[in-house]
Design goal:
Elements: H1 15-24, H2 31-41, E1 46-49, H3 56-67, E2 77-80, H4 84-97, E3 106-109, H5 115-124, E4 128-131, H6 133-142, E5 152-155, H7 158-163, H8 167-175, E6 182-187, H9 192-201, E7 206-209, E8 220-226, H10 232-242, E9 248-252, H11 256-268, E10 273-276, H12 282-294, E11 299-302, H13 304-307, E12 315-320, H14 327-334, E13 344-350, H15 355-365, E14 370-371, H16 377-396, H17 402-415, H18 419-430, E15 510-515, H19 525-536, E16 546-548, E17 553-558, H20 563-571, E18 573-574, E19 577-578, E20 582-583
Parallel strand pairs: 1-6, 1-7, 2-4, 2-5, 3-4, 5-6, 8-13, 8-14, 9-11, 9-12, 10-11, 12-13
Antiparallel strand pairs: 15-17, 15-20, 16-17, 18-19
């Protein structure tokens, strides 16, 4: 199998998966996908050397999906990852690949999350478990995770698990898996301990070595913005507005649907924007590119596949609105700017859990990517005022103002006002539709939290003397024997709720809505408030009473909510579950007191 495969259809995947990949926007397999997928589909074990960012998640996830029997709600695949962030990322990728596989369920389990939540989800059943070694080991010891139906085991970033001190846990897990299963081990490097694990637990593995794509992009200024405190769309428009050398931009998103939605929102805000995706025929695609070249369009929102081959010298900015899945895609994306000897600008939006991918991109491009400070309201106002002054100055230099000067003189005489007051009134009229000042407050930036290992172990854990495993040190201590965890006051020491300051109720008429997340999903009030505030742009002080129930929740929102905000909330996810916002037509039994209710956790889970 060579790495020059033109399409996923050549790799032996099912029609259902091929349809999903097309909808996501995947077209050409990366080298590691081209080599690993056929081998795994044939049932062989794999020992792969590949960096993060080469596309290896799809390389093992797609063949894994082909082996899943949806009718059996038991763990049929186990993926071990070194960190909780990577576990969540892999689980999300699997869920996206299962778009056309109804009933599929993947469950991430990791340290730091309540056992109660995980026990409920495990009892409900999952086809694939993605977890960190420590927490997977704990569930196997408690017998709350059963691997009798295991078909596939994946060790992702094995060298990182070794560095973080998890290799003993990994071997313990391997010893407690059924004898008959397929194993795939991926590691960026191959230290002796990893090689020894592979020789002991893999059966005649096929070895695959992939080099990560590297590139030097010295002519392109690369910056990133931390996604926090403001909706990405609002941040995007602020950034585009204050960039001095902005001429035209290509904005990259992951899905075809997102290209259309973002183009519509930017057009509504006064930008000349259009979508470019795989659903466009060749004639329509060429028309969009010609408009971008001519200046009829300033912004194109594209998927990776649709943007290939675009060569428009006036593209001054590339915005990675959605972070790419691998470094090759990033290099191809930013290569759309800085052409024909010009300098270019690449802006990357990075959510906290995507910080690992940011660091991988920095290594691949061999350049640090500097943080971008989001333009403040004052910055945007100053830029708008400067542009307004420039336009006025341009008109002042023109001829033929006598007629209008006469009108101003008449107004001054009729209204007994100064010329400055008339000019101010005209300026106010001219800014309608795009105010020179923007309202609201600037959110406070939050620092990134770098990836941490399972159960908050230090990065140098592997260099310390390791404590013996549970079977070597006797019975596991009961909770009451573990000692004090912190100086934090107990609930009984806190003032009763009636004595705490009340949160002011939002003013105005409120409408109660129902959403499809509740206690069984591990949701908390703050999750709901944060999702609504971020996705619909509704400040938390305008969000009313929230009631939490087992399978759903209710939330009060201001009456007359714009359709755009309501539609955004229908698609919003909380804890990975679509909330499906809709007017509430009745109360379920139990528990709604008319106040925001916080789920009380067992003391052992606090």
């Amino acid at each position: 199998m060579t790495s020059t495969v033109d399409s996923f259809a050549e790799l032996g995947l099912s029609e259902s998966l091929l349809k999903t990949l097309s909808e996501i926007g995947y077209e050409t397999p990366s080298p590691i996908q081209a080599q690993c997928i056929p081998i795994l589909l044939d049932g062989h074990d794999i020992l792969g050397m590949a960096q993060t960012g080469t596309g290896k998640t799809a390389a093992f996830a797609l063949p894994l999906m082909e082996t899943i029997d949806i009718k059996v709600s038991k763990p049929q695949a186990l993926i071990l990852t070194p960190t909780r962030e990577l576990a969540i990322q892999v689980a999300e990728a699997l869920q996206s690949y299962a778009k056309n596989l109804p009933g599929f369920h993947v469950l991430p389990i990791y340290g730091g999350q309540s056992y109660t939540i995980q026990l409920k989800q495990l009892a409900r059943g999952a086809h694939v478990i993605v977890g960190t070694p420590g927490r997977v080991m704990d569930h196997l010891e408690r017998k709350t995770l059963n691997l009798d139906h295991l078909k596939t085991l994946v060790l992702d970033e094995a060298d990182e698990m070794l560095r973080m001190g998890f290799i003993d846990d990994v071997e313990w897990i391997l010893e407690h898996t059924p004898e008959q299963h397929q194993t795939a081990l991926f590691s960026a490097t191959m230290p002796e301990q990893i090689r020894r694990v592979a020789q002991k637990y893999l059966v005649e593995p096929r070895e695959i070595k992939i080099k990560a794509a590297t590139a030097t992009v010295a002519a392109i200024r690369q910056v990133y913005w931390q996604v926090s405190g403001m909706h990405k769309l609002d941040a995007l428009t602020r950034i585009l507005e204050v960039e001095d050398d902005f001429d035209a931009a290509i904005i990259f998103v992951r899905t075809k649907t997102a290209t259309v939605e973002l183009a519509d929102k930017l057009n509504a805000r006064g930008y000349a924007a259009a979508a470019l995706n795989g659903d466009l025929n060749q004639q329509m695609r060429e028309r969009v590119i010609d408009q971008l070249k001519s200046g009829a369009l300033d912004i194109v929102i594209a998927t990776d596949v649709a943007a290939r081959g675009i060569d428009v010298p006036r593209v001054s900015h590339v915005v990675n609105y959605d972070i790419p899945y691998d470094t090759e895609a990033y290099v191809h994306r930013i290569g759309r700017t800085g052409r024909a000897g010009r300098t270019g600008n690449a802006i990357l939006f990075v959510a906290p859990r995507e910080i690992r991918m940011l660091r991988t991109i920095e290594r691949a491009t061999r350049q640090p990517i500097a943080p971008l400070t989001l333009p403040s309201r004052a910055d945007v106002t100053n830029k708008r005022v400067a542009d307004f002054k420039a336009k006025v100055a341009e008109v002042l230099d023109a001829e033929g103002l006598d007629f209008f000067a006469n009108i101003v003189s008449q107004l001054c005489e009729e209204k007994d006002v100064s010329a400055e007051e008339v000019a101010a009134a005209l300026a106010m009229m001219a800014q309608e539709g795009k105010p020179l000042q923007i309202a609201g407050e600037d959110p406070a930036p939050r620092p990134f939290r770098e990836d941490r290992g399972d159960d908050r172990r230090p990065a140098s854990f592997g260099d310390r003397e390791r404590k013996p495993r549970f079977e070597d040190r006797g019975e596991r201590p009961r909770f009451e024997d573990r000692g004090e965890r912190s100086e934090r006051p107990r609930f009984e020491d806190r003032p009763p709720r009636s004595e705490r300051p009340a949160r002011p109720a939002p003013a105005g008429d409120m409408v109660r809505y129902r959403i499809d997340v509740g206690r069984e999903h591990g949701v908390e009030v703050r999750d709901i408030v944060g999702a609504i505030a971020n996705e619909a742009g509704i400040e938390s002080r305008f969000i009313g009473r929230i009631g939490l129930y087992e399978e759903s929740s209710t939330v009060e929102l201001p009456a007359g909510m714009p359709a755009e905000a309501a539609n955004a909330l229908k698609r919003t996810r909380v804890r990975g579950v679509p909330i499906n916002l809709r007017p509430d037509e009745g109360r379920p039994g139990g528990g709604f007191s008319g106040e925001r209710k916080f789920k009380k956790k067992p003391f052992a889970d606090r």
